[in-house]
Amino acid sequence: MKIITFAAIYIGSYEVSMKIFEIRPNRKLRQIDHLRSRLELGRDAYNKGIIGYELVEELCQVLKEFHSVMEGYKVEEYKAYAGNVLRAVSNEPFILDQIRLRTHINVDVLSNSEHRFMNYKSLAAAPEFQTLVEKGAVVADVGGGSMQITLFRKGTAVTTQHIELGIMRIWEKLAQIRNMVSHYETQIQELIDKELEIFKRLYLSDQEIKYVIFMGDYIHDMVKDFSKKEDDGTIETERFLKLLNKWHKKSPEELSIELNLSNERDPLILPSVVLYKRLTEEMEAQYIWVPSVRITDGIVCDYAEKSKMIRFEHDFKEDVLAASRNLAERYQSYSRHTEAVLSMSTAIFDAMKKVHGMGKRERLLLQAAAILHDCGRYVSLVNQSECSYQIIMASEIIGMTHLEREIVANTVKYSSLPIHPYENVKDKTNQENYMVVSKLMAILRTANAMDRSHKQKFKNIKAVLKGRELVITIETEESVVLEKGLFSSYADSFEEVFSVMPKIKEKRVL
To answer: 316-508, superfamily in CATH?
Structure first.
């Protein structure tokens, strides 16, 4: 494989950045340039709901310059993304069109799930990462418009929460009172504490955290003078807090000078200090770690992985399954029945490979759907399907995109409700995703029917495709009249989707 020159571009709330990388045959990524341009798009986005033409003009000019740099390096591939700052505005399509026409750069807008997962991949590429999360860690990914907090237990992500509280958003929310109060930092802290208190009570009350891993803007400026670190590159929380407590009473001008920021009157530095201070205090960890990665590193990692140029040691699939189990447990729906449906769904999927045409990723989505298929019962026994859909769509699952989460939610919803004909929903989804949901739904519905009594009567389940029949062989010591009776009604919908009739072959165990 030849060396590929790749550009990663990101449009953020107050900065537009680009990194140029070489992706080498030995599966190594080498950064060869890093450009950053201060552009506070978030001021318009979070205050007015649109980005004005003057800022759009500046943005296009910056991207033109980036394009010239890319030509100078003879960049062969690039990816350009924007995050929350464009998702938050009503004139997003017009901005993207102007960028494409005037700079010849195509920009995609990331969902929150996609954005955070890219950041997560840049973390996972660091050799220290797996060691730290094995011991218990929280990743706080702080942006301009929001932040994401992800909890790791024994090396696996078990929950992640999106909080609409970022550095630029805090600054904009308090714009009206900045000049009316003597202790502006106190108002910032009160705004932050309201959100953190809820998160800590719901998700961290019984967790022991050794490390807080910070990603985001300004944090690199804050830790650059910590010359003495532990062997694993971490900083003692006590030392870090001592410095933050000193900074938190200073003016933005004083902080900008002390931290040697390019903007000597940077108004966002004080909200940053207070936010990182409160996060550090509330997590009660022993150490913090600030990796030297940014979203542009995540973009190249995502590209290189999808192009099969690099591999990760960390198992992202296990993160999805662990987060799904944690969500099911939160809604008191993870049980032996869940495990039985998960096992049967996977067995059917594997036996039907030649027929359904789906791959490893769809298999993972089916497993997540099987784990979560009963979560809506916590809210309503009557409207379980709709409640399950709403719970899944309202929950972040690290490692899963927004579209994938929607596929899982619809698979769960229609495993017990009639699925709408494609003609009725084609304005909401494309045919490819509709077919994936239909296939996963048919498998999940069949597996669920096999344990309708929730008594796990079947043992040693084997599924084998024989011609146009899927023979599911089971061993049982009990009467399975209920399961076999209900199974036939679900078998018809399975046959409609796959043109294969599932049949149960019973072996009595004496």
So the answer is: Hypothetical protein af1432 (1.10.3210.10)
**Which has the closest alpha carbon to 38: 131, 136, 168, 152?**
168
CB 49 within 8 A of CB 88: yes
Which residue has 């802290």 as its token pair? 189
Q: pLDDT at position 177, please?
A: 63
Question: Which stretches of 174-294 are DSSP H helices?
Answer: 184-199, 219-223, 237-247, 252-258, 269-283
Give the tokens for residue 106: 């195509």
Position 33, amino acid: D
- 3-class SS of residue 123: helix
| Sheet containing strand 287-289, strands side by side | 156-163, 147-153, 137-142, 211-216, 287-289, 235-236
Q: Which CATH architecture has domain 126-292?
A: 2-Layer Sandwich (3.30)
Other Cβ atoms within 10 Å of 429 Cβ, number: 17
Nearest to 114 by CA among 81, 149, 79, 147: 81
- Which contacts of 461-467 are long-range, i.e. CB under 8 A and separated by 24 or more positions? 461/343, 461/344, 461/347, 462/347, 463/347, 463/348, 463/350, 463/351, 463/352, 464/351, 465/351, 465/352, 465/354, 465/355, 465/500
Residue in the block written with tokens 């993207």: 96
Beta partners for residue 153, in sequence order: 156
Give me the helices (H) in 150-216, please.
Answer: 167-173, 184-199
Element at 7 (helix H, strand E) = strand 4-11
Report the C-alpha dihedral over residues 262, 264, 268, 272, rounded to 10 degrees. Answer: 80
Classify domain 4-110 by CATH architecture.
Answer: 2-Layer Sandwich (3.30)
DSSP 63-113: HHHHHHHHHHTT--EEEEEE-HHHHT-TTHHHHHHHHHHHH---EEEPPHH
Q: List CB contacts of 185: < 8 A, sequence separation 6 or more.
A: 248, 249, 270, 274
Burial class (CB in 10 A: 0-12, 13-18, 19+), 289: buried
pLDDT in the model for residue 261: 82
CA distances from 505 to 167, 195, 474 (A): 61, 54, 6
Host H or E run for residue 440: helix 431-449
Decide: residue 359, CB within 10 A, 0-12 exposed, 13-18 middle, 19+ buried.
Answer: exposed
Q: Where are the domains of the chain?
A: 4-110, 126-292, 316-508
CA pair distance 34, 119, nearest whole angstrom: 17
Q: Which residue has the tokens 């027929």?
A: 355
Residue type, 226: F
Domains 4-110 and 126-292 fall in the same CATH topology: yes
Q: What local confidence, expressed as pLDDT, does residue 183 receive? A: 63
CB 150 within 8 A of CB 136: no
- pLDDT mean values, one per 10 residues, the chain (510 residues): 90 94 85 94 89 95 97 96 91 96 96 89 88 92 90 87 86 69 72 83 81 90 71 83 86 85 81 90 92 92 89 87 92 91 94 94 97 94 92 91 94 91 89 95 90 70 89 76 70 88 76
Residue 180 confidence (pLDDT): 58
- Contact predicate 249/234, CB 8 Å: no
